[in-house]
Amino acid sequence: MSDEPDKNPEDEFADMLRQFLSGNSDLDPSKLASAAGLPSDPAAVAQLMQQLQRAMQHTGDGVDWKVALEAAQEIASKDAISIDPGIRSALEQALHVAELWLDEVTFVTELAATPKLLSRKEWVTATMPVWTQLAEPVALSIADALTRVLKEQAPEELSGMMAGASQLMRNIGGALFAMQLGQVVGQLSTEVVSGGDVGIPLLSDQQAALVPQNLAEFGDGLDIAPDQVQLYLSVREIAHARLFRHAKWLRLHMISSITEFARGISIDTDRLEELASGFDPSNPEELRQAMVSGALIPPKSDAQQQALARLETTLALVEGWVDVVTAAATVRLPKRDAVAETVRRRRATGGPAESAFSTLVGLELRPRRLREAAAMWQAVTDAVGAEGRDALWSHPDVVPTSEDIDDPAGLVARLLAGEPEPDEMDQAIADFFREEESGGASEAEGDDTPAPPVV
Q1: 96 domain-assigned
Q2: Between vectors from CA 251 to CA 249 and to CA 256, what angle results, nearest 5°?
Q3: Lowest mean pLDDT: which of 10-19, 25-34, 233-242, 427-436?
Q4: 154 domain residue, yes or no
Q5: Residue 172 has pLDDT above 60, yes or no
Q6: Domain contains 191
Q7: CA-to-CA distance for 229 and 340, rounded, in angstroms?
Q8: pLDDT at 444
Q9: Are 411 and 373 in contact (CB under 8 A)?
Q10: What predicted TM-score, i.e. pTM, was given to this entire model?
Q11: Cβ atoms < 10 Å from Cβ of 268
């Protein structure tokens, strides 16, 4: 009989994982990378092994999102170029002119902070807190489902080992998801031209920002003078940031709609069990396809469909308003219509990274009814003027609805007839969200204030 004390099953499992992660195993780490939907080149595999080793040391209950940040920053840093001083000066001037032009056609709050010019890596760093907030419910759901399935599918002789290692497996599952999110956000950093390019308020404090390297690539092949592209996109970005600063409740409403949707996501454990039982380590393509195609996320529930409908309406209202005020502010640009159409097509189809986020989280960020919403805002502007139009953002109860997008004439008729003002409680809520913080210092991230009534 051996004099060695019996090992704890969790320690045995941890030892087995450490051997694999250190390369002392017959399994090929590149197969794991491929199965997780990650690049399988040597550098990426080495990074994966390092991140999983760190996940084994993670003691918290949540996902270690530093994994996502580091993966995204590495992608963003590739092929990065410094901003030419001449281009920097031209963009700063374009942003200044954009603010003056918007003053002529809007009645929303001016920005408190000076717009920024961000590198791709800086964009990743600034926006990752929101990406992780949106993705965390799905990451935890996948990690829990993976742990449960592995415990159920483990051979009897390994059941004790797996039962004692659930937290370890949860950490590793979370790390794999975080690395996938990092891949998506890193790729997005090579596509976006501004802070509000994907429609949702990714930057805190309603900060406006441009990504010069991507903006230059956006203009390539358009046969439009660079200064016109710069001015048009500057106006769009500042209009987007101003709207969220003006309608204090809007950012919370939009983020709440997204997280409400994400919390309702469950993982198709039957499909996961099927994949686990038939998984061939030498051929991980089926598992990879399931991970990156969204096949593990079952059809949306009724509650999710409702949350998604509210989100799509809000996205369309925001983007439609931005389109209309940008068109009004850029009347001096001869090629504004050509740039506008390029922007609309780009938003309607989305880029590769946006599609990847959709499959990863099960959520599309495209304003499906952008043109209809823009037509509604234009009808309102024609009927009651810019000031009357912008007053509709003062309170969540008076913002147009999906039905108003369907029937702009009905909305215009109600506005011309006059509607009752919000009662004292409604006005108090509106005043609270409109209150300006001293010095433009921001609303705190992660505020626990209950969400106001949804649209």
Answers
A1: yes
A2: 95
A3: 10-19
A4: yes
A5: yes
A6: yes
A7: 10
A8: 42
A9: no
A10: 0.76
A11: 16
